[in-house]
Specification:
Layout lengths: L1 H13 L9 H12 L1 H37 L5 H35 L5 E3 L6 H15 L10 H9 L3 E2 L4 E2 L10 E3 L4 E2 L4 E2 L2 E4 L2 E4 L2 E3 L4 E2 L4 E2 L4 E2 L4 E2 L4 E2 L3 E3 L4 E2 L6 E2 L4
Parallel strand pairs: 2-4, 3-5, 4-9, 5-10, 6-11, 9-12, 10-13, 11-14, 12-15, 13-16
Antiparallel strand pairs: 1-8, 7-8, 15-17
């Protein structure tokens, strides 16, 4: 048992420092990426920063335009009127910010959503780069304005544009979603408030990205946690405050919770 734990520890430590198995220039690039992880991480943050600047700048443009227009039109009015017009302009600008952001972010995300694939390997790899960018853009909306449009057709539209497959009549009452391009929801699915959906997890030093599928007419309860490689069958119910671990398969029509019995594979 002691030797087994030692082997697992060595495996976890070596997986992110070993040389790349890829051939040619891509292999050399990935090896350098792993050997200089801290520097590589800083360098790969630069494009994200630029995308954030572009997306936020585009979304703020309506507010600045309306404020400038109102100021120009009422510049000869008294101070109270100018303040009122400025406030109204900023109010309309905020609404414009919401609408522009939910469209411009998917536009920047478009190339990455097509590059994210099922993957099991080191965190520092070529495959993890589009996944990292995809989530960074998702979180820009998630941690700014997504709660304001949840649940409405606008949050459904946003997730669809980010690559999530969503059937008709489905309701998503949460903003806590990662990896939308790796998530599939069937028809008339209900995702409860504050539930967490993520199509990735970490295990023994590996990053694992795998599809999360919720079949038609299934229900995910309040504050439940669903991870990568999970499949929820048709008409199934995930009870509130339930953690559904990777590779769990919930059969059709069954409940999953403290008292439910489901088929769950070894996640290692």
């Amino acid at each position: 048992m002691k030797h087994q734990k030692t082997d697992e520890k060595l495996s976890a430590e070596s997986i992110n420092t070993q040389k790349s198995k890829k051939q040619g220039l891509l292999g050399h690039f990935e090896t350098i990426l792993r050997q200089f992880q801290s520097l590589a991480f800083v360098l790969f943050l630069a494009p994200i920063a630029l995308m954030y600047v572009f997306c936020i700048g585009a979304a703020v443009t309506p507010a600045i335009y309306l404020f400038s227009l109102g100021h120009e039109m009422f510049k000869n009015s008294n101070l109270v009127m100018q303040a009122f017009v400025g406030g109204i302009s900023l109010g309309f600008g905020f609404v414009g910010f919401v609408f522009v952001l939910i469209f411009v972010v998917p536009l920047c995300n478009w190339p990455f959503r097509h590059l994210v694939k099922s993957y099991r390997g080191p965190w520092f790899s070529l495959e993890s780069i589009p996944w990292f960018y995809h989530n960074a853009l998702t979180y820009l909306v998630r941690y700014t304005i997504l709660n304001f449009i949840t649940p409405t057709p606008l949050n459904i539209l946003f997730f669809k544009m980010m690559g999530m497959k969503i059937g008709k009549g489905t309701m998503i009452n949460t903003a806590n979603i990662s990896d939308p391009c790796m998530i599939e929801l069937g028809d008339y699915v209900t995702i409860g408030g504050s539930a967490y959906l993520m199509a990735h997890y970490g295990m023994k030093g590996f990053l694992i990205i795998d599809k999360l599928v919720v079949r038609s007419k299934a229900n995910v309860g309040l504050h439940a946690y669903l991870m990568g490689a999970v499949e929820v069958g048709e008409f199934a119910q995930v009870l509130p405050n339930t953690a559904v671990l990777p590779k769990t398969k919930i059969p059709t029509g069954q409940k999953f919770g403290l008292s439910a019995k489901v088929e769950q594979e070894d996640i290692s």
